[in-house]
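Hey L., structure's done. Input below.
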Amino acid sequence: MKKCRILLCLLLLCLVCSGCEGSYGYYGRADIPPMVEQWREQVEFYADMYEVSEYVDLLLAIIAQESGGDADKVPDIMQCSASAGKTITDPIASIRQGTYYFSTLLSSGTDKGVDLDTVIQSYNFGGGYQGYIAEEQQGHHSENAARAFSARMCEQHGYSFYGDVLYVEHVRSYLSSLDGALEEGDYESMQECMREYMGVPYLYGGNGKYGIDCSALTQRIYKRVGITFPRTAQGQYDAVMHIADYEAEPGDLVFFQGTYESGSYITHVGVYVGDGRMFHASAGQGYCCYTSIYTVYYQSHFVGFGRP
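Output:
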């Protein structure tokens, strides 16, 4: 019976940690007008609710494309009434439904093995686009694929046009690249976040001050300066530019492998603070703390540095 309880706890931990992020990486930092930026807090709230918090900037970019954030002109600022099956006339209700709809598209996209561009285009085309991309385009969106799908829908249903075939490009135009994401003064804000989490207990799968794991901590530290990262250490490693050891600066990420049994190459991540030290959620110490990366243990598992 004791062994069964242990196995059940491990299964529940895996479910908690799996989330809804799939294998998708960081997509960019929102470069949006103030009329869209005003909705960030509400988007963050519902993104947390539907477990897509790493996509807040992408959701804001969708608002920018759909309505420009002007609720007086377009109350359904995420243009998601069709997905709800009713007319939406309130911007907060629109954010809730639009975020929920996006989360379902993200989940189905992960299941079908399509790329993130396909998920974004399906916000405009509908979920059927994901099946088309999975079955006929090897899981990869392209402008030509979008045009072919649009033409097919027009032919099948007698439409004169179907959707925005350049929807991905239009949404992308509101997202900056990873390069140069850290700005002057950002590291000071990151340090403030580190001070807040100093001593917080380590908890595998945790995501708050009751307990937190390594990738959730780095995600929160970067979120403080407006950079949205994937939830896992592997996802963060895949999202950043890898740099040589001698280039590492305070605020960069530092990655490790093989620190526990996992199906991923990268199993641990911290924020480099200079002088050979990192701030991280330490399973060994049992809490968030500063640690030298030059210990025998961490050097034996060291992979390298990354920069957004």
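The chain has 14 helices and ten strands. The CA atoms of residues 60 and 158 lie 33 Å apart.

-- N.
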